[in-house]
């Protein structure tokens, strides 16, 4: 019996067999992976790789296919960049060939020397005329170089050199503009530029020479002028009138916008989910419209049933209630308001202005005039 037990236990020792099988499978996977890498590198169609990626479920194969897709995209990008560089080089070469054509260059030099020979000035003028090969365009470039050399008694010399260049625009040969005197037109444009600069300098000097007056001095002068014209014997009354006229002026667009925003904020204070800070993002969920309409028409709808998540319903309830109870036209479209994450502030501002005007007409809002 002990011998039989040993014979039965011997075949049960199988821990090495699965390990050996795993090693064989790993070698087969590595061999198949190497083959797949070579095959995948030959595929030039990204759709084929995409279909292979959808079919396979093996992690190693999916990794190899993704690497092949990245390499394929990189090769295509490199190819496109290479083709683009070639096209740019061809276009540049063609443009240079078309512009080159025939070129002529003339240089004139004029030198003057002082009577004692201690100073000498030289002016060099270079004109380059380039004509296209087909003879339809010409380009002229003029370069002026001037140098001034002065020698002192001690033997030292002072050298000053300046350089300036300008180009004329290309023209078609044979047009009436070629017969114009370019030098005369150029001199006239330079003279006009110098004249404008002189006028600006004169205005600046005039402004700097004017006496500076403070705000109090200007106010005092205005009060004296009003007293002389009106003949008022009470300076306090005239001063009060001047101060009132300067402080209660016509409000500008920014002040009207801010006053309307403050009015909306005051009328919706205490409403849940409403915080009006501007005419754009503060109205994006429709709760501000509903709160503003509900403040004047509380029986139109139940505000407690509204939520910021249901934006379409909020816009529909607010716009329809304002049109029904305040006769305010629906200047804003519900679909546009739902589609935009932040509405255009000009559209919202215009609608709120119209709603305010309708409330004034119905006598629900009191103004200074009324």
TrEMBL record:
One Pfam family from the record: Smoothelin
SMART domains in the cross-refs: CH
PROSITE patterns attached to this UniProt entry: CH
Biased composition (Basic and acidic residues): 71-90, 193-205
Gene3D superfamilies: Calponin-like domain
Alphabetized UniProt keyword annotations: Coiled coil, Phosphoprotein
Compositionally skewed regions (Low complexity) per UniProt: 104-114, 157-175
Ranges of Polar residues composition bias in the record: 1-10, 115-146, 230-248
Ranges for domain Calponin-homology (CH): 254-360
Renumbered residue ranges of the record's region Disordered: 1-26, 71-248
Annotated family: Belongs to the smoothelin family.
Protein's name in the database: SMTN protein
Source organism per UniProt: Prunella himalayana
Lineage, top ranks: Eukaryota, Metazoa, Chordata, Craniata, Vertebrata
């Amino acid at each position: 019996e002990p011998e039989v037990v040993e014979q039965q236990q011997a075949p049960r020792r199988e821990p090495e067999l699965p390990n050996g099988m795993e090693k064989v499978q790993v070698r087969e996977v590595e061999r198949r992976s190497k083959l797949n890498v070579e095959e995948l590198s030959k595929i030039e169609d990204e759709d084929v790789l995409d279909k292979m990626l959808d079919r396979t479920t093996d992690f190693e194969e999916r990794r190899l296919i993704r690497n092949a897709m990245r390499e394929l995209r990189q090769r295509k990008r490199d190819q496109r960049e290479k083709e683009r560089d070639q096209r740019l080089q061809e276009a540049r070469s063609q443009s240079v060939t078309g512009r080159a054509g025939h070129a002529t260059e003339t240089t004139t030099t004029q030198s003057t020397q002082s009577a004692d020979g201690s100073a000498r000035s030289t002016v060099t003028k270079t004109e380059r005329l380039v004509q296209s090969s087909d003879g339809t365009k010409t380009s002229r470039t003029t370069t002026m170089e001037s140098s001034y050399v002065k020698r002192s008694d001690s033997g030292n010399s002072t050298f000053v050199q300046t350089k300036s260049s300008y180009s004329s625009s290309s023209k078609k040969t044979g047009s009436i503009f070629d017969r114009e005197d370019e030098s005369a037109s150029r001199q006239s444009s330079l003279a006009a530029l110098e004249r404008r600069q002189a006028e600006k300098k004169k205005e600046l000097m005039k402004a700097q020479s004017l006496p500076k007056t403070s705000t109090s001095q200007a106010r005092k002068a205005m009060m004296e002028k009003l007293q002389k014209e009106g003949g008022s014997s009470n300076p306090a009354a005239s001063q009060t009138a001047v101060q009132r006229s300067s402080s209660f002026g016509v409000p500008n667009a920014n002040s009207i916008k801010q006053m309307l925003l403050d009015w909306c904020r005051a009328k919706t204070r205490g409403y849940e989910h409403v915080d009006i800070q501007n005419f754009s993002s503060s109205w994006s969920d429709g709760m501000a419209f509903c709160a503003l309409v509900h403040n004047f028409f509380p029986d139109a709808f139940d505000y407690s049933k509204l939520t910021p998540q249901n934006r379409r319903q909020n816009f529909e309830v607010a716009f329809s209630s304002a049109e029904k109870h305040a006769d305010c036209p629906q200047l804003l479209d519900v679909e546009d308001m739902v589609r935009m994450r932040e509405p255009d502030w000009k559209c919202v501002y215009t609608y709120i202005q119209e709603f305010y005007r309708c409330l004034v007409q119905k006598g629900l809002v009191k103004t200074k005039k009324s």
